[in-house]
Amino acid sequence: MSALSWLNAEAFTAFGQHIMWSDMIGNTIGLIALGLGWRRSVLTWPAQLLSGLILVGAYASAQLSGGVGKQLLVIGVALWGWRMWSRGRQEAQDGSIAVRFATWRERGVLLAGAVLGTLAVGGLFTLYPQLSWSPWADAYIFVGTLVAMVAQARGLVEFWFAWLLVDIVGVPLAFRSDLAFSGLVYVVYFALVLWGMRDWWLRSRASAQPALEGAAA
Asked: Across residues 66-87, what is the average pLDDT?
């Protein structure tokens, strides 16, 4: 049995849901990556890279082209984010990654990219139904994940808001696609996102305070 065949084989069945090895292992690593992101550790990026490589097989077996494309983008953005964080790891006073809120211009760019990207990808999936059985939800998650990772690579607190919006659609879609472990992990993601959002929010305010004091002086 090849490694790909083994990864897409059933690991176990729970409550009538068939859990695949690729779904379970890839999402577990993804969960670890999110935790590392909350801790602002550069190791979040190689973890996301590995998770993406494994989950390509899981989404391909579920015939979710958007999911496959999303993971390929995860791999590409993880390499870019790894480089960005490696270069900027000394920006915060404690030697870690500095985080901040996006400017209104940056928010506008992220929002416009999310809307236009979802329309483009959703239109493509609708035009070619064989690519995805749930074109608009698949496109929404595809583009939303990309937006979230770009925001994360730039150290923007809005990264967590983007993940929150992805989770809202990702949970039901994963269960409907027979990717039960993905659905369960998305639920855990939701809790981690709220926790991480609060932590980055407080840190962004703490980082901005010395700058304001310096300006006042």
From this structure: 81
For the ranges 18-27, 59-68, 82-91, 120-129, the lowest mean pLDDT is seen at: 59-68
Amino acid at 136: W
Taking CA 18 as the corner, what is the angle to CA 144 and CA 134, rounded to the nearest 5 degrees? 35
* Total-model pTM: 0.72
Tokens of 155: 């150290």
Instruction: Say if CB 48 and CB 205 are below 8 A apart.
Output: no
Among 42, 54, 82, 53, smallest CA distance to 181 is for: 54
Check residue 131 and report its DSSP letter. G
What is the Cα–Cα distance from 175 to 171, expressed in whole angstroms? 7
Residue 186 corresponds to which tokens in the numbers above? 């998305």
Q: Identify residue 118 by its one-letter amino acid code.
A: T
Q: Could you tell me the CA-to-CA distances from 204 to 43, 66, 182 in Å, in that order?
A: 21, 33, 31
What's at 111, amino acid-wise? L
What separation, in Å, do the N-terminal and C-terminal C-alpha atoms of the chain show? 68
